[in-house]
Amino acid sequence: xxxxxxxxxxxxxxxxxxxxxxxxxxxxxxxxxxxxxxxxxxxxxxxxxxxxxxxxxxxxxxxxxxxxxxxxxxxxxxxxxxxxxxxxxxxxxxxxxxxxxxxxxxxxxxxxxxxxxxxxxxxxxxxxxxxxxxxxxxxxxxxxxxxxxxxxxxx
Length: 155
Known about the structure:
Largest sheet: none
Number of helices: 5
Number of strands: 0
Helix content: over 70%
Shape: rod-shaped
Distance between the termini: 32 Å
Structural class: mainly alpha
Order of helices and strands: HHHHH
């Protein structure tokens, strides 16, 4: 990734936030697709069940009902696979984004002069580190929150 200049950080905060997504866009897109497929499977299950109860069982078409049940079982196996992808690779994506954020923040702190840290008897250094870790933790949670909310809104 390329180093961002200081004028970039004075731009829109959402632009800054989503700029960290760009290098890892393939993980984000695949995660969104899997989350939407999970939601579609969850939404379609009541409709499919209603169809089975109203149409297949009253007509006593038990061979088709057995195939239908196998198809539902296969669909839920796919759902498990999609869930695994979202849990594993979605979190991996979040870690990559958080790592990039930390790298940029730490490189910015390294560029500060010694007088920046000497003010107020080194208390500032400890406060900066505390805020830095807690803010990045909140931002990494925001990454996962944006992913989940977006997948629910789209479907």
